[in-house]
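Schema walk-through. Below, the input block comes first and the output block second. Nothing else is stored per chain. Lengths vary across the set, and this one has 268 residues.
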Amino acid sequence: MTSIALTIAGSDSGGGAGIQADLKTFSALGVYGTSAITAITAQNTQSVTAIEELTPKMVAAQINAVLSDMSVNAIKIGMLSSPEIIATVADCLKTFTGPIVLDPVMIAKSGDALLRPDAVSALISNLLPIATVLTPNLPEAARLLGQTKEATTPDEMQTQGMALLELGPKAILMKGGHATGAVCTDLLITPNKVSKIAALRIATNNTHGTGCTLSSAIAAGLAKGYDLDTSVSKAHAYLQTAIANADMLNIGVGHGPVHHFHHVWGQI
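--- output ---
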């Protein structure tokens, strides 16, 4: 049977992040991708120049159209932008029983805001409690906790991750990409254990869409029936290779995308 995943997120006209990155990742990992677009962004490797939200009614119509017809095995949630869209998504997923990967997208790689300030509390109250796994980077984790200091060490990451667990998700993947050092460390935190996923940091400017790609790769693994530990491990390995091959694409003059189809063409 074909594994199916649904991404609920914003569109990236540059193709490196958002819905486009999610669908590329699903396809690369052998999962049929469906989508519900929450916002349209005009962006490239350098900046986000415009954002236009879809109406909550249209967001709901897309989600309901997919879920009413297809046996979706897992859902990835990305850019939601507004409290109204967040509430709509939560309402549409009330009866969904499969795994949900929540990537709390707040800032684009270019530094442009993708989540309105008044939407943070709505995200916390409406969606964190239904998430199978929450995948914040270090700035996002601090903002969700209302803290001004980002974690800089694995111990601080674990402390913040445990605090995020108290907000309702079943698991937290604290991503260490914003930290410094030769080794990049992620922590998968559940109430019962903490698992460390470490890899050498790759020297490249082309990391646009890494968060979207990782969360959608996790969703792809869950859609195929892997447990969370295996899904995270496989997703991490996929992303590392996609980053390692990113420079081969030569896309744009800013932060270019990772190479989602590195195993199909252009692999080093």
